[in-house]
Amino acid sequence: MIRLIFALLLLPLLAGAAPAPRDWSKAVTRSADGAYVIGNPAARVKLVEYLSYTCPHCARYAQASTPTLRDTFIRSGSTRVELRHATRDRLDLAATVIARCTGPAGFAATSERIFATQEDWYERGTRFEQPNAARMALYPQGAKLRALAYGAGLAEIGKARGLSDAALTACFDDTAALLQIARMSDASWKAIAAASAPQPGGTPTFVVNGKAYATLDWAGLEKILRAAGAR
């Protein structure tokens, strides 16, 4: 009898011990062509973002979208985002290498930090690049980008995410990775042009469940995502 009473008392406690829902914002993979994919692979809403780290519109979008897109839509499993680089200049490429150097586990947070501090490192990088352009022109591509990343303060962002000087050097010297970024960027700009025609395209450009949208801010995109099933 005592055992039966104890079991009956325990049942409500066991029933309330349901496992916590999975946080899909921690699920990050890299596609075969190098794009980073964040969220539930089976998500109802599939968002593609073409981004540039030196694009001020992208920085404003990142700041406005993160609280809802990452912490609600992606976290819940209703939405998946695929991030594709559309590099615009050398500083953008240097920032791209830093973000990707942190790998799947650190990519999203590093990207957010790069966008959050864009004004600072972009100004520093521009000031550094102008007087040092002739000297850096003599460097190999990887060394040139690495010097620019250090001069702009981008390397500091990578180090704050746990990257050592040796790790940063290895990422900038990885010619295969640089070629992959170049190929992705070329494909991205072609996709952006197609989405924006007949107007010239820019970043950020979005694709939601196969349909492209250009010149959208977060408020406009949020409505589209919610209509598609983002929760």
UniProtKB/TrEMBL annotation:
Segments forming domain Thioredoxin-like fold: 34-225
InterPro entries: Thioredoxin-like_fold, Thioredoxin-like_sf
Highest taxon of the lineage: Bacteria
Keywords (A to Z) from UniProt: Signal
Signal peptide from the UniProt entry: 1-17
Pfam families xrefs: Thioredoxin_4 (PF13462)
Protein name as it appears in the record: Thioredoxin domain-containing protein
Organism: Sphingomonas qilianensis
